[in-house]
Amino acid sequence: MLCASCWPLGAQGLSILSGNQFTSTEDSQEYSGYGHYANPRSGVSYSYQDPVYTGGDELTEDSSNSKLLAGNIGSTDANDMVYLGNTSGVTVVSLTYDLGSICEVDTVDVWALCGEDTQIKKVTYSVSEDGVNYSGMGTVYPGYPSGDTVLQIRKSNSTPKLGRYVKVLVEEQTLDYTGDWSFRVSLGEVVVLGTPYEVEPEPEDPPLGPTGVLSGNTFTSQEDFQHYGSLAYYGNPRSGVSYSYEDAVYTGGDELSEDPFRVKLNSGKVSSADAADMLYLGNTSGVTQISIVYDLGVECEVDTVDTWVFCGAGTQIKKVTSYISSNGVSYSTVKSSIVPYPSGDTMIQVSQTPGSLMTGRYVKVVIEEQPLDYLDNWSYTASIGEIVIIGRAPDAAGPVFLLSDNHLRSSGSYNTSMLQIATGATYQWTTKEPFVTDGHLIASDEDDANDGVGGLPDLTDGSDTQTDVSMVCTSSIGTEGDYAGVQFDLKDVYELGEIDLWTLADANSYMDGYEVLISNNGSDYTSLGFTVNTHPRSSNGMVNAWTGGLSGQNARYVKIIMHNANDSQQLTVGEIAIWGTRPYDISLPVNSQPEPVSTDARLKNYSKLYLDWSNYNHVVNDVNQYKIYIETQNFSTVSGLTPVKTISPGSKAPRQSGELLRLGAGDHLLHCRDTTDECRSRARGCQSAGADHAGSDRYHRQDQASVQYQ
User: Fold this and answer.
1) Average pLDDT of each block of 10 consecutive residues along the chain (710 residues)?
2) Domain with 473 in it: what CATH number?
3) Which of 241, 323, 468, 615 could form a disulfide with 216 if both were Cys (CB 3.0 to 4.6 A apart)?
């Protein structure tokens, strides 16, 4: 006989956590309303612990630890039930279930045979998160049956218990219902009910970006470029970085008055000893010592700490020590360096690299003055120039790739260590109004036979600071205030990240800025704004007028309109590099079965139909290309069909106002579907519309259309 509960818990949305393999009618009647009834949870197991007076039956009777999950809750067959005991004394056995993960445990059912020679006295239930510390659910005392009966001994809690481990302690009664001795514990199924606990996953750390300048320095000089020009963030300083002064000794407070806005140590010009670029601290009795703490904004991997100090008459640094910390409190030493005496007034680069990988958000640099200078006179000041921290910072957007097919040289800003997508990109100069490029500038792009890399186009030959005529494009003299335009075709739609534009900045040649425009079809362009060249003419060399913050802008065509300053006799342009990434995962499959969206169809006359899907949200669904299909029969898939027209509004592009299609006399029903052959983004566009002749020259209706997602 089976004695089971009469109230269903399945309506509460609970699941079977214990992985039972149910098969019988009784199983279905009791548990089919719960989750995981037909698909038992995997990764669940149980074990026996601390049995008392069982004679080892749990080992021989259930050697594979499976009988209590085998289903058939009403069965007393030896294949489905574990008989423990048959020894002197009261049998006690402990079962521990490992649910595989943290769950909310609501109810535990123990199915046990009570009857002649076998009777359960009590069952105690408890739950644990770690398998060591348990919290009790309670104890149930089953009553005596009137005959041999498989009892459901259930314990439920009004508030679920959180845990991974469920312990069931079963104790035998001394006498059975007839008043004779009970010789054994007879256990059937144990069923744990509840809800798998959805633990909020820890956010993954974003990947580290390329090696770059972490300290946010704004570089301007040729010496800056020679030392740091090949590093990321050289032309686009990291934001969110700051530094402060701590524990100054014998500085007279000069660090506050000399650098009130905390900018001098990040201002660039590493070789400059000018007071505008250098921090002079001291001029008081005693040896000056100062501590500078950089907050990099986030945890970074630090490779090198460069401290530029000035040593000479009346100023000498004794020692520089750098430290790193994750919390700004506990620091680990990166390195300590003794600064040598110079033979004259000299800027010295103290470069410190840790012996092993070090990570942290805070970098501290402690600088100690030497009592005497190289002339054996008193050193009165500690003279500190630039501090440059090099390493890798997290980059949530992931790595950016070179998209413009620039040649990669063995060294320099565009070297073989750069990430690049072989796009096959090309470019051409604009020659139409209103931005007509000077003919001499275009011609100078063709004299590239001596560029040292096989005569590549000047804008993508991998140069940076070089001013050789074979590596740059130069306009005619007397082009003050003129424009020059160049259009890149990346051959596919990519998500843009940033743009490098190298140009000569000196007294006679100066581009004061440029506009960036993007397009997906090469005809309709959207402006991304004007980038001002912030490098001064005193740079007297090639500078990178960098544009960043383009993330989220997708385009195939990139047009750059440069403006020669009104007082610049000549425009000189070197390398142009476009960076970005694929806006989609090329491994995702193509689904030819679209989902419905709304499309408007309007029959203009007996041979022309207008389709308008401008109400469809391109931005949200990231559609990049539409393909129009015309068939004489209704269809729900485009597999095997050939489009009659392709439209490329582009991912996140302006709305497409409509497309004109000509219908033959037999084309009574029209359907359009978009299934892009080449994925332009995470989504693919799909449209359908219908038009019926209906004897009217102006027929307007709303049909269903589809967007096909990858």
Assistant:
1) 48 82 91 90 90 78 88 86 78 92 94 92 95 94 92 92 95 91 90 82 70 91 85 85 85 76 89 83 76 94 96 93 95 96 94 93 94 91 92 77 92 86 94 89 75 78 88 93 95 90 95 94 91 89 84 88 96 94 62 52 54 51 61 74 63 32 33 31 29 26 30
2) 2.60.120.260
3) 241
For residue 211, the model assigns a pLDDT of 86
As a whole number of angstroms, the distance between CA 468 and CA 491 comes to 30
Exposure class string for 465-487: b at 16+ Cβ within 10 A, else e = bbbeebbbbbbeeebeebbbbbb
pLDDT of residue 425: 95
Strands 526-532, 626-628: pairing kind:
unpaired
pLDDT, position 15: 92
Number of domains within the chain: 4
Please name the amino acid found at residue 477: I
Same domain, 577 and 600: no
Residues 6 or more apart whose Cβ sits within 8 Å of residue 625: 646, 647, 648, 649, 650, 674, 676, 678, 680, 684, 685
Domain boundary pick from 359, 392, 425: 392
The pLDDT of residue 488 is 97
Q: Is 319 helix (H, G, I), strand (E, B) or coil?
A: strand
Amino acid identity at 266: N
Please check whether residues 554 and 408 belong to one and the same domain. Answer: yes
Residue 40 falls within a domain, yes or no? yes
Asked if 268 and 380 sit in the same domain, the reply is yes
Output the CA angle 206-211-216, nearest 5 degrees: 90
The answer to whether residue 202 sits within a structural domain is no
Strand partners, 484: 562
Amino acid letter for position 655: R
Q: Are residues 276 and 422 in the same domain?
A: no
Q: What is the largest CA-CA distance in the chain?
A: 119
Reduced DSSP (H G I as helix, E B as strand, rest coil) percent helix, strand, coil of the chain, to 5: 5, 45, 50
Q: How is residue 323 written in tokens?
A: 């430290």
3-state secondary structure of 505: strand
Q: Are residues 316 and 381 in the same domain?
A: yes
Which of 351, 368, 392 terminates a domain? The answer is 392
Mind giving me the DSSP string for 64-117? TS-GGGS--TT--STTT-EEEE-SSS--EEEEEEEEEEEEEEEEEEEEEEEBTT
Instruction: Give a yes or no: residue 203 inside a domain.
Output: no
Quote the CA–CA distance of 266 and 253 in Å, as a whole number.
Answer: 20
pLDDT of residue 336: 96
Spatial distance between the Cα atoms of 337 and 581, rounded to a whole number of angstroms: 41
**Domain assignment of residue 587, yes or no:** no
H or E segment and range at residue 576: strand 572-581
Q: Residue 623: its pLDDT value, please?
A: 54
Q: Which residues pair with 241 in a beta bridge?
A: none
With CA atoms as reference, report the closest residue to 196 among 104, 84, 326.
Answer: 104
Which tokens is 86 given? 């048959």
Q: How far is CA 549 from CA 103, 240, 546, in A?
A: 44, 15, 10
Q: Find where tokens 């279905």 sit.
A: 28
Q: Cα separation of 154 and 142, whole Å?
A: 9
> Is 136 within 8 Å of 126 (Cβ atoms)?
yes
Q: What is the pLDDT of residue 352?
A: 96
Structural domain that includes position 618:
595-709
Considering the domain architecture, whether residues 309 and 386 belong to the same structural domain is answered as yes
Query: In terms of domains, do 178 and 217 share one?
Result: no
